[in-house]
Amino acid sequence: MLRQLSSLYEQNLFESVIPFWLLHSLDTEHGGYFTCLDRDGSIYDTRKYVWLNGRQVWTLSRLYNTVERRPEWLDAARLGAEFLRKHVFDEQGRCYFSLARDGKPSFYQRKPYAGVFVMLGFLEYAKASGDPWYRAKAEELFRKIPEWTADPRLLGRPALEGGLAYSQLADIYVMCSMALELDHEPTLSDCLQKIRLHYEPAHHLLYESATIDPARRREFPDGRLICPGSIFEISWFLFRALDRCPDPEVEGMLLKCLDGACEFGWDSRHGGFFYFRDIDGKPTLQLESDMKLWWVHAEAIYALLTAYLRTLDDKWMRRLEQVHDWTWRRFPDPEYGEWFGYLNRDGTPSHSLKGNHYKGCFHIPRALLFSVQDLSRR
What we know:
It is a single chain. It is built from 13 helices and 13 strands. The protein has helices at residues 2-24, 50-66, 71-87, 113-129, 132-150, 169-182, 185-194, 221-224, 228-244, 248-265, 294-311, 314-328, 363-376; strands spanning 36-37, 43-45, 48-49, 98-99, 105-107, 166-168, 199-200, 205-206, 209-211, 225-226, 277-278, 292-293, 342-343. A hairpin with a 5-residue loop joins β1 (36-37) and β2 (43-45). The protein is globular.
């Protein structure tokens, strides 16, 4: 089974997913990448979304660094890296969320995540290109992003009197992702401690947003929200952190949460994982909660494979087979390549798009690449 999966994932990655993005997303006139692509790769929005451009720089650079030093991969990575270097930063060193096709600022989001993926893209591109400027800028962003997270006023988002203080799962994930690339053990250790605040022991789940005040944990929909995809993604990141900073208690907790996400998030009627669920069964504010998304299932595949390779417990293989079978029958597009991004609850495509301002060249190729590489080391 594992050999078949490895062959299938390698074929899909190098014959479908990456060729789709190389053919349709590169803006050879102005630089950077188009990500708003319809099913056939036609462009329906020429704006450049910064976090997706940073992610694509990372993906192409990682392929060049770890698979094969193909000039076309490095050239395509350079196209994005140089565009971001020229246009992404404001006068305070913060990152815009989107840019016009020619690089003029289009929109500023008061969150740090655009900067996170610029950092990751620059760091990986520095390894590929040998240009020290990109590594220095990545390290600078690594220092700034915790400041932006701790004090949102620096991004123009002041704390208001009626708001609650939350720990965001996404903030732990992004800090862990950057720290892994830099081998920064103090940050990895901090992430492994912070994840405990998000643990819900009755169902073995991780809250998407954990209130700092436990007494108000389930007072609002924000504090009751569960995203199975986030649990899948952060689990395998933290497993990698545990390889550097062992903590058997956290490792056991994460395995329970991975199991819990599979149970709680799976749609018993139609199959596949819900996007969001309320832990108390109440309505979610997110109207798309019952949809099935590409990244949730890609992250589930890699997280379950990681759990199996880590424990050799057959239950993870059974879960992997279930998720793989459901995913592979619905998401990959045999006609135009790549994957559909958004499915209705019953598994039929809700949109024809292959990319937008949230879906780009990242979750799918990363999950496929890491799966193939991990299996090759067995």
